[in-house]
């Protein structure tokens, strides 16, 4: 609630502590067209395949100060920058140098981005009437973004290089929300977070540390608009439907490190969920998410999730799994001009698959 809509902090009936952890497997395949000896297109063939695992965790607490005011605090990941790409260029010539036979590695390329923008939040909500609550939260955003782009040439080691950077960033933002309980069956919420700046000090250096460059960086993130609803039909056992709509004007993002226009697109993020509670109290949850991609208005990502939970002690455990897919055309991370026998178009078809497993525990005081 401190991140999405601080007015919802008052929705809890008891003081509570939430914690969660998740591991995701990201699988990326890049494809290039394959032609036969007559120059006719045959199929797409994978030229790079990467599989990596990423962890993240979150924690939050909320408690009532009095019958009207509630306080909440949380530590979450606002944006996860993690991305890893690696590929080996193999020797296709069987009659070459005996020291580099066919399929020996000519070049090993690596591109990696790490770190996350974390959000330490604290918020208050106030119940104006039994049907209407308002809230506000303050966010301290911080993190360290790291990056490596390297290439190791096995035939000509002198051409090898490794460029790295570290960027320590921090900033402050705020968010405001309203929660309206229209009746016992319907709740509506809206929230807004104005645009904010993330300032950092970036250090660029090479592997041999011959050249170290320090520069200031500023990224102006756009504001974010959220609206959502929860519907409680007259069912026994209880069933809950939720829907959330998020608009982010990414076209307004400005990065002092990028000189040319980025041509980002504004995005909509739609999330729909349903929870059904059986007679024994066990919940069954399903979720669907569809979000646009800011770098390409023709690309979107769809995610499907399901989960359950179980009571344990003074609280309850929650478990979930998620699967998401995305197909896009992207520019090459590294060029292929030096390899005459390898045909690669100006861009490549990229298939991204994410499988994530999460678990959490809610402790009620």
How would you portray this structure in words?
By secondary structure, the chain is mainly β. The protein is built from no helices and 19 strands. The protein has a 14-stranded antiparallel barrel. The radius of gyration is 25 Å and the shape is elongated. It starts with 15 loop residues before the first strand and ends with a strand.
Quick take:
By secondary structure, this protein is an all-beta fold.
Radius of gyration, whole Å: 25 Å
Whole-number average pLDDT?
91
Ranges with pLDDT <50 over ≥5 residues?
A: none
Separation of termini? Answer: 18 Å
Helix content: under 10%
Overall strand count = 19
What is the count of DSSP helices, taking H or I runs of 4+ residues? 0
Strand arrangement across the biggest beta sheet: 1-2-3-6-7-8-9-12-13-15-16-17-18-19
Structural class: mainly beta
The ordered string of helix (H) and strand (E) elements is EEEEEEEEEEEEEEEEEEE
Shape: elongated
Identify the quaternary structure here: single chain
Largest sheet: 14 strands, antiparallel, barrel
Proportion of beta-strand residues: over 45%
């Amino acid at each position: 609630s401190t991140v999405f809509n601080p007015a919802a902090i008052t929705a809890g009936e008891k003081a509570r502590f939430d914690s969660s952890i998740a591991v995701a497997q990201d699988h990326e395949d890049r494809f290039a067209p394959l032609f036969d000896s007559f120059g006719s297109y045959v199929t797409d063939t994978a030229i790079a395949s990467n599989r990596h695992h990423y962890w993240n965790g979150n924690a939050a607490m909320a408690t009532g100060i009095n019958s009207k005011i509630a306080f909440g605090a949380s530590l979450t990941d606002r944006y996860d920058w993690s991305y890893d790409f690696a590929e080996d260029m193999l020797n296709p010539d069987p009659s070459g140098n005996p020291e580099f036979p066919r399929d020996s590695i000519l070049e090993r390329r690596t591109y990696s981005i790490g770190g996350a923008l974390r959000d330490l939040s604290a918020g208050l909500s106030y119940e104006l009437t039994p049907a209407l609550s308002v809230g506000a939260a303050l966010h301290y955003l911080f993190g360290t973004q790291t990056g490596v782009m390297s290439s190791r040439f096995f035939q000509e080691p002198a051409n090898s290089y490794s460029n790295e950077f570290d960027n320590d960033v921090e900033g402050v933002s705020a968010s405001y929300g309203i929660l309206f309980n229209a009746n016992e069956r319907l709740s509506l919420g809206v929230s807004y977070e104005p645009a904010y700046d993330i300032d950092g000090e970036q250090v660029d250096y090479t592997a041999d540390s011959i050249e170290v460059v320090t520069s200031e960086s500023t990224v102006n993130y756009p504001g974010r608009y959220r609206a959502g609803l929860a519907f409680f039909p007259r069912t026994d056992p209880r069933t809950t439907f939720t829907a959330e709509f998020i608009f982010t004007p990414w076209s307004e993002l400005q990065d002092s490190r990028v000189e040319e226009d980025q041509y980002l697109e504004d995005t909509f993020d739609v999330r729909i969920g349903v929870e059904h509670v059986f007679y024994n109290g066990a919940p069954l949850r399903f979720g669907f998410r569809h979000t646009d991609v800011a770098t390409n208005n023709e690309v979107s990502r769809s995610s499907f999730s399901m989960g359950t939970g179980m009571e344990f002690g003074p609280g309850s455990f929650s478990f979930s799994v998620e699967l998401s897919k995305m197909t896009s055309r992207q520019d090459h991370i590294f060029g292929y001009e030096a390899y005459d026998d390898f045909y690669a178009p100006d861009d490549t078809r990229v298939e991204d698959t994410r499988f994530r497993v999460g678990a959490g525990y809610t402790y009620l005081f």
